[in-house]
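INFO  loader      accepted 1 record
INFO  loader      residues=473
INFO  predictor   begin
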Amino acid sequence: MRILLLRAKPDFMDMVIGIPIGLTMIAAVAERLNHEVEILDLALDKKQDEADRRLTAKLQEKKFDLVGLTAMTVEYEAAVRVARRVKQFDPQIPIVFGGQHPSIKAAEMVSEDFCDYVVKGEGENVFSELVTALSLAGSLENVKGLVFKSGERVVETPPQELIQDLDTLPYPAYHLLEVERYFRASSARAATKSKRCMQVFTSRGCPWRCTYCHDLFGKSFRARSPENVFGELKLLYDRWGVREYMVEDDIFNLDIERAKEIFDLVKERLPDVYFQFGNGLRLERFDEELVRKMAEGGTHYVCIAIESASPRIQKMIKKNLKLDRSAEALSWMRKYKIRTLGFFMIGFPTETLDEIQGTIDYASRLDLDEALFSIATPYPGTELNKQVADLGLYDPDLVSRGGDEFQLIKTEQFDYKLLRKLQRRAYRKFFLSKLRFLRMIPKLVNVNSSMKYLRAIERNFLAYGGAKTSRIN
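INFO  predictor   done
INFO  writer      dumping tokens
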């Protein structure tokens, strides 16, 4: 089969570009089955008309037997627009969706004329079985983890088992990407030490059950072996000259000894590289030896997910973080010169204004370099979404983009407008504390980091009320 995998150009002004890791994994397993695969990442284009022209040119270039699209909730509308353009070009091209949002909204999506199949959850085995069934005219009802329409009936097959041995998967199909364009794009996380930077996953899943989080990879931790991880890092180093790695795991440091082994291999065999961890690492899963090994291996930036300083909210959102460990862990980061960012959220259901202010004060006291204050958002498919719906704590006048059940929280204590004011107050207090604003000046004048921080200023201080071109948080 000839397969075209697409990522749509996002609608948001502040969306930064990282490689579409999910598509590279799907492409790799399809190539292993001897299918002809191409990846077209329209998110690399600066303007929508450029993306449209590239899509049309690709469809005119050859006839594809299957088109695949991926989408998070914030990318959903853009992905639908691309799927409709594909169907307008050739209504006979079957389209399959995968990723976080399609997995949640699978039945609704296959009822639309722009979608023929949805791969639910972890996609490699589902997609492999789908393309095999389509190639051999086999029964789709035998493909686990698939949703499709048969006549007027929506068929949802039993779920696919999670892949327990991730080492059995091929490395991502980086060779199908325009790799050099990602090196020139804005950093997907913190400012990089090297422009030759790439995102990687070393594990999947997280055993904690935070109510605001998705469940795409399940709630069990599955990790690649240190040797398998190192093999991918070395491939990127040798073939594409990658010198910095952005680790995107849900919880890289759950297995502390495994994390140490990875950095032992890096220190021994991979000189002059850097690491950053843009997903929230777990606060309690550090010891000083791990922090030291991370620093020796080139780690210069980590994000730590704290969310709330309220023990009641910690329990309610099922994060149950041991807040008393924060000072010790951050002291190790400071000792080994690793910069830190803390993730915080405000505006959970039943949260009081005093609890919100407590989180702002707590964040400002911590020895963090930066902080991200997000407004709690009940994304479809999360427990938080169900909780908000059950309690009726949503604002019917502010339905956000990305789906009919994607709404903003409103309680007797606050609405979205007030939360935006509190968010601005949080940033002001945080960066005026401990003279942090002085640390930001070099970043604002640095060519590699200025755009990231100027976008953050625009998002949080100029796009008041959630402008169409800005994300919610």
